[in-house]
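The methods section describes the discrete structure representation at length, but only in general terms. The central task, working out the structure tokens from the amino acid sequence alone, is never made concrete. Nothing conveys this as quickly as seeing an actual entry. For illustration, here is how one protein appears when written out as sequence plus structure tokens:
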Amino acid sequence: MIGASGKWTIALAVLLLGGCATFSDDGGTGKVNAALSQRGITQQAPWIKNEADADRAADAVRKLLAQPLTAEHAVQIALLNNRGLQAAYAELGIAEAELVQAGRLRNPGFSFGRTHRADEVEYERAFIFDLMGLLTMPLRTQLERERFELVQGRMAADIIQVAADTRRAWISAIAAQQSAAYAEQVKGAAEAASELARRMVNAGNFSKLDQAREQAFYADATAQLARARQQSLAERERLTRLLGLWGNDIAFKLPERLPDLPPTLREMTDIERQAMQQRLDVQAAVGNAENIANSLGLTRATGYFSVLEAKYIRNSESGKPRQTGYEIELRLPIFDSGSAKLARAENAHRQAVNRAADLAIRARSEVREAYGAWRTSYDLARHYRDEVVPLRARISEETLLRYNGMLMSVFELLAESRQQVSAVINAIEAQRDFWLADTTLQFTINGKSPGAIAASGGSLRATAPAAEAGH
């Protein structure tokens, strides 16, 4: 037969074993990668925890840099090298540790006392167990699980942010590189015209006013080239920073030109619904409101009694039978009835609900605006590609024919050449604007608004003291 003390011991052992939560094998990154895959991010964003992981990442970066850098490769390098993402992964690990801790009971206590009176000796023994922690453990665990999932969502949003920023920087760097190359052509044409004008003035075949105009254009073209080169350098350095490169690795090679426009635009219907379903900041705001609502329930349940402990007692005294029993310790809400804690939790819940509603409204507006910019930029880029640039090319051909027929001066030919190059530069900028708008649209549907995650994340642990009442 098992005595009363044996039953207590067995019951406590079962409870303690049942309360021991463990860490996941992947640290929660599996769900993050699944969210990224659903949103079109196929590149890997590994959690670098040791030297071996760092060496593998460095080898992958070196292989990607050995060839002209595509947009996909640029994103992959950025995800491998970004230290901010590694800091976010550490936050993911902290959140999982909180989840594991919530699933474990507070360690039991043991007290021992020895007193004596003359020849009599009295021993007091007590085994203390956190009964409130046991009763609230399922809810506390659920709250921390929800918070862990919110951190996973923020992690995925951060990765999408880095990918979008890198893609934008890659597009801008190539466009600036192209514009600088065409600015070089304009400067060369202006230099040739200025030199020709000088020689013709010396020969008495050209006015000084016309020469001054050609020299002014050459001076302006020189300044434009300097600005274009500086812009190209600045955009390349911005991309370099996002890629996390330094030393010899900064000599990476970019493609010579931007990708061609797609033949047709895909139809995108009901984009507002897509944004509501896929935007990670909207999901985080809604999840945060639900988490705080659940935490509010725990606050209400523990508002009056925050401490509830059970003690198993076993005392012995010289010459007397052994004394056994139990005690229940309960804090009385005399000075603190929990009303302030409850009011704080209720207001935190109202705050989270209103933030989620506000974010949903802004998300709908942002996706409509991004879609409009996407369609307009495509139409403009296609207009330059199909209308403006071909028209300028035909004008240039006709001008050359007239020049060969001695019906037009060389300066008119050079002026038309400058106009054609200007049209090409405008076409490059329109093409750049389309690809930037395309990236922004995808990010607006799948990612987050600037500051949205920070706004909702600030109240993730708004009721943390209530959630941790049992610890």
Remarks:
- Residues 262-303+338-463 form one domain.
- The CA atoms of residues 222 and 456 lie 50 Å apart.
- The first strand starts at residue 109 and ends at 117.
- The chain has 13 helices and four strands.
